User: Fold these one by one.
Assistant:
Number 1:
Amino acid sequence: MPTFTAADGTRLAYHLRGEGEPLVVLPGGPMRASAYLGDLGGLDARRRLVLLDLRGTGDSAVPADPATYRCDRLVEDVEVLRAHMGLEHMDVLAHSAGGSLAMLYAARYPERVARLALITATPWALGMPATAEDRLAAARLRLRKGEPWFEGAYPAFEAWLAGTGEFDPVFEPFFYGRWDAVAEEHAALADGQFNDEAADLYFSEGAFDPPATRAALARLPAPVLVLAGELDGGPRPGLARRAAEVFLNAELAVQPDAGHYPWLDDPEWFVRRVAAFLDGSGAPSVSAE
């Protein structure tokens, strides 16, 4: 397991999968160990995945100063990783909450980003959070599919989003495009993968300056892919489109019947679309699929 040392002396770990040109991968959660990403549906057959364990997660050390868990302060860890790998610039893929970290990195170091893929990334860094109604509206799409778990799961999900209930595994299916054995196994792996203290601090006051970030990303020359799941509530495709419109050179892709982990719902579709973007054969402007 390779490691490097952050500017404050914290030892950080990353995991390598596959062969080819490196693709730096930033996990979500927030502050979830990168193991949940797996091989991203087989994307490691096309690129060498560099899966970073953010400080205090997975195999990375806990920092001396918990304030360094704040999203904007993690940007320098990504930059030190780039330098450690000897890359002049790099392709970056970020999932979920990791998307805000990737946006802040691209805003601060635009010359270091070759291509940026934002996968089901709620754009908090742009001042565009997913709302409770967004998530409930996406959840109600499941009713039309007649899935048997819906009736028992929806009230608990609604209560959690309203702040009157606790997180309940019964509504895990809402985060997946299909609730099958693969999704159940993936959801079960979440235990022990989160650093709750770090997650609480990731979005703490001062983490984001949306006007400044939007202005910087409007000048970002690197191509950007914003990929949303058709059935995901955070972000819904409409919110993903609004995020894509912030960038100078972005394309929007909506993966059919996919939730928050699209590489599990249809690995072939996901890998084909992301690989086409990374290879430079994607659409050059914002467009839905």
Number 2:
Amino acid sequence: MSNNLAQAYLVGNAVDHPQIRIKGLDGGPTLTTFRVAMNHRYQGADGQWQDGDPCYMEVQCWGALGDNVCATVCKGMSVIVVGRIVQSTWEANGEDGKSVTRSVLRVRATHVGPDLGARNVLVNVRKAVEQNAAQNAASREAELAAVQNLKNAQNSGSKPELVGVGAGGQEEEVEPAF
């Protein structure tokens, strides 16, 4: 199989609010879609800037990305989308009743974010902060236990047994520094 994937980097405005198309059941992925409008500006023969023809692209977001997009992106918001171009093809009945093949290009997003060049954005980093706080609390508890163990050993005159938390999150014995 070829590795020639058509990467897409879109910068535009969300035309509508994201919509959940497929709600993941039994742990399955959720599909969220929204459309992005893009256009270019050019300088006409008279020297005035003019808007080019707009181009609309449907963006598909699967799983957690779709959940976050649905909670964050709103109509009119300037966004940056990174993903790959996919083509969907299907059969439909034409006006004369004969079967007609239809197709559409979409972007299956891997990243979606606000365009910070267009506006100032307040980002909610609650999940990252909560994870960081939990890691810091566990690390702090291990430090306090090691200090208490050292104090107890010094008071009793025995050699202290220090236990620290290693890089993999596992407890490991630590040599005292004295």
Number 3:
Amino acid sequence: MGSGGEDVVDVRLGARLAELRAERGWSLGELAERSGVSRSTLSRAERAEISPTASLLNRLCGVYGRTMSQLLSEVEAAPALVVRAVDQAIWEDKTSGFLRRSVSPPHAGLRGELVEGRLAADADIAYDRPPVPGLEQHIWILQGKLEVTAQDVEHHLDAGDCLRLRVWGPTRFRCPGPEDVRYALAVVLP
């Protein structure tokens, strides 16, 4: 995405978050209680005054029963059969150093998707719950090292390694460095 492209995505994402809340008839207070995110943060995200972090989106996805890719795809144009590299949506959480490329955006009729993830050296992202319980993930390390903690088990992954798991509870992704990590993430809905 070019300069200013992130702002357009944040505006569309904020509008979609507001739509999802309105569809359920929830006030900001009710959503805050369900998600554990403050009312003011939710309001600022819906108005695109802030760019939501990966952790914040994960909490909201859990409340709305969507994967992050599904939510992000809802603010993009309808997916095509072939997605050229230059057209793949990129979303960045500047706070955590996480960059996410939707290689094969999700589609309502399909259960799987492919994502490229990049974490900066020393980046650490903790998710308190999966967006969809039982979500299947295959994490294939393309470059660098990644530590993934799921179900209280820490997995140390090097380039070429692949971790397959079902996500039922909290997870943590940490790049121990010294270089950034780049990985492919295959996500399959249960």
Number 4:
Amino acid sequence: MISLAFDLAEGEKVALVTARYDGETFLELDQYPEGATPRPRIPGALPPGVSICTINVPDFARLDGHWAVQPEVRDGPLYNGAKVGLLRMPDGALLEVIEGGRVI
């Protein structure tokens, strides 16, 4: 998709990294080519594009000191009584983190 969007030559590669958990790829981060420019944004608003996602993290202690919203226990089908916190990424996007899972 990036190659098509930036009209890159056929076969030209862009850097990317994926994260896998339990045999499944759940996250892909792509490096945009040099021709990419920042998207316009509204001050104080979430950045354009994917601006919030949720992940499951087995070790909350590693995130201490980085919370935008401190973890608290939440009920409901997604949370099932787990602790949930919110991190703000460098670009302003939000990352909801649910405590649990196992390290593979």
